[in-house]
Amino acid sequence: SSAGPNGIVYNSEPGGLDNQGMPPGAMLGSMAMDAIVDVRLSLDNPFSAHRPGHDAAVNKLNRDYANAPGAQELWDDGFRPVLMQGKTMSMIDERALSATISMAAFNLNTGTGGAAVYMWVKRGSSEPAITEFTISTTEE
Predict the structure, then answer these.
(1) How far apart are the C-alpha atoms of 115 and 86, rounded to whole Å?
(2) pTM
(3) What pLDDT score was predicted for residue 17?
(4) How many other β-carbons are positioned within 10 Å of the β-carbon of residue 126?
(5) At 95, is the secondary structure helix, strand, or coil?
């Protein structure tokens, strides 16, 4: 085995496939038009998630996530939230993200109670695309 251009490892061991089974000189790339090139998560504890008759979340941890902290920075950096089925980006007012994000963004934490978790993606055509994604419930 030896590393070729762009770090691709070619296996020429007996019984192995030269060029990873591709024709000589062929290379794989991870770029595509409008590909997902970065992913981030944000938390929100919108008023609509509070219990009826309560003005605000009751503990400090929940208050820390009120008004979609970080959402404006993500938006300004070119990230956009993953949307609920049937919703459009036009339902989110970028000048009032904390008040409108919950109208269209898909909440990964739906039905569990607690803060909303939104996934944000950044798309591009000239950066390497994300080709693998692993989610874990542990630190490993």
Answers:
(1) 22
(2) 0.66
(3) 47
(4) 8
(5) helix
Integer Cα distance of 41 and 22 in angstroms: 37
Q: Which residue has the tokens 């049937």?
A: 86
Nearest partner of 17 among 29, 26, 6, 7, judged by Cα? 26
Q: What is the mean pLDDT of the chain?
A: 76
Q: Which amino acid is at 83?
A: L
Nearest of 36, 28, 15 to residue 130 by alpha carbon: 36
Q: For residue 21, what are its two tokens?
A: 């089974």
DSSP helix, strand, coil percent of the chain (3-state; round to 5): 25, 20, 55
Amino acid at 126: S
The answer to whether 114 and 51 have CB atoms below 8 angstroms apart is no
Residues 6+ apart with CB under 8 A from 78: 122
Q: Is 33 helix (H, G, I), strand (E, B) or coil?
A: coil
- Structure token pair of residue 132: 């693998």
Measured at the CA of 18, the angle between CA 12 and CA 23, to 5 degrees, comes to 160
